[in-house]
Design goal:
- The structure is a single chain.
- 69% of the residues lie in helices and 1% in strands.
- It is mainly alpha-helical.
- A hairpin with a 2-residue loop joins strand 1 and strand 2.
């Protein structure tokens, strides 16, 4: 008790002593933190983006050490000037964790003969102490920079911008950042920088999780460039605002109403509270499923797949795990999963396909099906069923997969599947039906028959489910339009699904999405027939629909497109990723009131 009183008295004395200088010191620290963020970014860009000599690398390490010391000092000063220090630590858990890393690494360096670095060098096959230190400090500063970006995002939340505008602007910023990163000399194997148009195309394809490429990802990019692509895919799949809002939610004061409105629309949730709760679970679901995919892929590489080292195998596994769940379609093999050795790894194909399915059915669907509490609730109350949106997503996805698999098999069994036995042919057909949203291929897409390409184009146009990482008009849109057509044929005035009434607003939204998507694809195909008339009409349609659906399947013409043609594909990928309605709402003006009603009119249709 006496110690507690002394502690409180000392804290009160210290707070009174520091009170007069608190405002000035904290304002100075804000500028100092900006300096830390900017300096760390420049140093990391320099060391990763350019080829550096040993003496230059040592200077960069010295600069990073100075930044670490300044960061450590600013954290201690901020802690000192906070009157509620325990609460400060609780509210800044990530920064506290980063400071502990600095302390542990310093102790290891001074007293333990760098045993921590030795562990990394031994277990992760780093070539030298410098490489291990650079990897660790890069991870540290990437987390720090992301944290500061989230804090800086509070500025944007005060701007008078609609959620759709914010979403589009965030993707543009991410794309431009990715373009700049890929243009750094150390990102590619060639001398000098990557061409702007090629870098822009690759960045858009990665951020929009499409997978269309104008250069070979496997041979054109260095390890650094491939890491950048993987990061762009991961951030682009989750949506950069969702990514930032999640960190803001767990690190600071939570998500504001404006961000929640956007998240509600983006995540297809029923309320602001469910959107905010689902956001945390999205990150957990993504990380969990990617880790499971990573483990399964690691143990299912075929015997014909040879890696140079354990580190290369780990990176290839991680890259394809992220690319599979995010439905990106990027591969570190020149021929994709049709590469020699990989093409016959059928268990691997099933693993990748299942991961892609989880990425396409939507986060809210996964949550509804696999949530422990809901599973227990349904077990105790068997009459409780999935949500209607879950049923539509699961059943429509299953139907499209089975339909695509059977038709693909029937169309290609005497052609591209002729050298495979029945089981291999079925697995291949299943994989190509699933990959309608992802862009992976286990066969040569350019060798497929015209009817098969038309089938895949149809499936790509429909795409994934709402609230997922995939593109297209969405399975729910397709299902709702189909149900409305049958209702019209039967003369029903109301649309009912699973004993539920569907309001007209949802049907209008579905029809708007379909019309907008069809118009964009028609315009894209029309322009491509003018700019790239040397390709067949089917090839152009396939390429355009693949871009809009953010799929990434190609007959092999992407790298041969003209500059104008590549521009069309870039815009199609972007619009397909941000969503047709989101894009339309962003371009539209404020809605006017409709609190009036005109006389009923009759119009001949059909």
């Amino acid at each position: 008790m006496k110690f507690s009183k002394l502690k409180n008295a000392f804290a009160e004395w210290l707070n009174n002593l520091l009170y007069s200088s608190r405002t000035q010191v904290l304002n100075t620290l804000v500028s100092l933190k900006a300096f830390i963020w900017l300096t760390a970014t420049i140093l990391l860009l320099y060391v990763f983006g350019f080829e550096t000599e040993q003496d230059e690398l040592e200077q960069v390490f010295l600069g990073l050490d100075v930044v670490l010391i300044i960061y450590f000092s600013t954290f201690l000063i901020r802690l000192l000037y906070e009157f509620r220090r325990t609460e400060f630590i609780k509210n800044n858990k990530l920064e506290t964790f980063l400071v502990l890393i600095i302390i542990v690494n310093t102790i290891s360096h001074l007293f333990l003969d760098n045993k921590i670095m030795g562990f990394f060098i031994e277990n992760f096959e780093f070539e030298s102490y410098e490489d291990a230190y650079l990897a660790l400090i890069t991870f540290f500063f990437i987390i720090l920079i992301l944290y500061e970006l989230v804090n800086a995002s509070d500025i944007f939340s005060r701007l008078k911008a609609s959620p759709s505008h914010s979403f589009i602007v965030s993707f543009i910023i991410l794309i431009l950042f990715g373009t700049g990163m890929l243009m750094l000399p150390a990102m590619t194997v060639q001398e000098g920088s990557m061409k702007f148009m090629d870098a822009l195309f690759t960045s858009v394809s990665a951020c929009c999780v499409t997978g269309l490429i104008v250069v070979d990802t496997a041979t054109f990019f260095t390890l650094k460039g491939q890491i950048v692509i993987m990061m762009l895919v991961q951030i682009g799949a989750l949506g950069i605002i969702s990514f930032a809002a999640f960190f803001a939610n767990i690190m600071k004061s939570g998500v504001g109403i404006k961000q929640q409105l956007f998240l509600q629309d983006y995540l297809i949730s029923e309320s602001l509270f469910s959107a905010k709760g689902l956001l945390r679970k999205i990150i957990f679901i993504t990380i969990s499923l990617e880790l499971i995919t990573f483990v399964l892929i690691y143990f299912t590489w075929g015997d014909g797949v040879v890696f140079n080292s354990q580190a290369q195998k780990l990176f290839f596994t991680a890259f394809h795990a992220v690319s599979a769940f995010c439905n990106a379609g990027f591969s570190l093999f020149t021929n994709g999963l049709a590469e020699h050795g990989v093409a016959t790894s059928y268990i691997l194909h099933i693993v990748v396909a299942v991961s892609m399915i989880f990425g396409t059915i939507g986060f809210s669907t996964i949550q509804d099906i696999f949530n422990i509490q809901r599973l227990r609730d349904r077990y105790q109350n068997p009459w409780k069923d999935w949500n209607l949106s879950t049923k539509v997503a699961v059943y429509t996805t299953a139907f499209l997969i089975v339909f695509g698999m059977l038709v693909f098999y029937l169309l290609e069994r005497d052609y591209i599947l002729s050298d495979k036995n029945f089981i291999e042919a079925i697995i291949t057909s299943f994989f190509q039906s699933v990959t309608r949203t992802a862009g992976f291929n286990t066969v040569d897409i350019g060798a497929l028959r015209t009817p098969t390409l038309i089938l895949l184009a149809f499936l790509m146009f429909i795409g994934a489910s709402s609230g997922s990482v995939g593109g297209g008009i969405k399975t729910s849109t397709f299902y709702l339009i189909l149900v409305s057509v049958f209702a019209t044929i039967r003369g029903r005035l109301k649309i009912e699904i699973d004993k539920r009434f569907i309001p007209k607003e949802l049907l209008f939204k579905a029809l708007s999405i379909f019309f907008f998507a069809a118009s964009i694809n028609l315009i894209g195909v029309f322009i491509l027939t003018l700019t790239d008339s040397n390709f067949s009409f089917v090839q152009i349609i396939f390429e355009q629909v693949s871009a809009f659906g953010t799929v990434g399947l190609s007959t092999g013409i992407t790298s041969e497109l003209s500059t104008a043609g590549r521009t069309v594909i870039i815009l199609s990928m972007f619009v397909g990723r941000v969503g047709t309605l989101t894009f339309a709402f962003a371009l539209s003006s404020r809605q006017t009131t409709q609190n009036y009603k005109y006389p009923k009119a009759h119009l001949m249709v059909g």
